[in-house]
# Entry
Amino acid sequence: MAVALIVLAAGQGTRMNSDLPKVLHRLGAAPLLAHALAAGIALDPARVVVVAGHGADQVSKAVTKADPAAEVVIQTEQLGTGHAVAQAMPALAGFEGRVLVLYGDTPFIRSETLEAMLESTADITVLGFEAADPGRYGRLVSKGAALERIVEFKDASDEERAITLCNSGVICADAALLSRLVAALSNDNAAGEYYLTDTIALARAEGLTAAVVTCPEAETLGINTRAELATAESLFQARMRAEALDNGVTLTAPDTVFFALGTHIGRDAVIGPNVVFGPGVTIESGAEVMAFCHLEGCHISRGATVGPFARLRPGAELAEDVHVGNFVEIKNSILDEGVKVGHLTYLGDADVGEFTNIGAGTITCNYDGVMKHRTTIGANVFIGSDTMLVAPVTVGAGALTGSGSVITQNVPDSALALGRARQVVKPGLAPKLFEMLRAQKARRMKEGA
Ligand code: UD1
Ligand code: CA
# Structure
């Protein structure tokens, strides 16, 4: 059965006390919105619609980044969750199947839970949870096993407020039905809003069936304040660490490793202490990342070793058995099998052929102040320590550059390239020079006194 997602993300999030729309605050190095979106996208939906309002331009950009196929509709006035869904329905015109409504500020919802909702045979299904402290959540009012309606806290009687089974906000129904129900909502309630939750009573009045699927409360945790965001971050990290350990990854000091949404690490990889992952990192089985590395937008293949103290930036592609050592920065560069970059090096916009050795202190001078240029280094090359490779430049296979060279011209295969001043040696001159310098120092101290 085809599935469509509607993600509600129009609210401002006043309690964040921020200029940034709430759903763009970061959790696991990704906007909050991307988390619920990822859980939904795991179901392979045919359509994705995000309802934006506050900061719609910024939200739009983040949505496109997370899912280029997603559509954004604007809700100019936030008249309630039911109104928000009604704004999304025209974008689903022609879609036949089930619609899942998610909140952009509820990042911990799991795709397994959403799948369970899709398996429900009821006409309309709500995701509920047993709340430790039901507070201001909407309450699920049932008669026996049948869900009758949802009552918002503001509108609830004392008896209804005593119910602990609460509404998470996630709802699932056939597209045509949902469209019809949200069009029929009224705002005659304590908040003067069009409540999505009223669709249950409307469906029941038509004799349709409504069901509740439940999940642990932790999954429905919404973010409303910076404090909640900080708590969510530590929960997210705890979950990612536990998942990595479960998947057979060694984390020497799990509490010091920070993951991002979508960090993917293969079995038997080893991650040392104090490693930070930004977005878009994949590490294959058996690779090792040593202490104090910062990795983002990169791919590390089987058998490769990185760090300690290395920084891999977006577009760093390390093939099998590559070795990247300390104080090395790599950006937008492809390192073929067995390349070694041991120490103090910057490789930016470079292609490096297999088994090439990059000496300590090598720098690809990729930026001329206006444009970026590529450096191409062939296989089995030896780049001498402290070589400056002024891009665009090519060093052919099997070539060698002398230490301290500034390479501004292409180097053919198997050539030796030297680009440095010739050394001058003056026998016996050192002691004289020292004597001169000491005299100078003594003079200065006297003048200073
Ligand atoms: C909602 C539910 C409540 C449930 C709770 C769970 C309704 C009427 N109430 O209440 O039963 O227990 O969530 O957290 O649905 N949004 C829009 N446009 C709007 C209004 C809201 O996009 O016009 C978005 C918000 O940005 C947010 C989500 O919908 O992501 C939920 O809205 P919010 O105002 O937080 O709903 P609650 O009052 O918490
Ligand atoms: Ca809320």
Observations:
- Residues 8-11, 51, 53, 75, 78-81, 83-84, 103-105, 137-138, 150, 152, 166-169, 195-197, 222 surround uridine-diphosphate-N-acetylglucosamine (ligand 1) (CB under 6 Å).
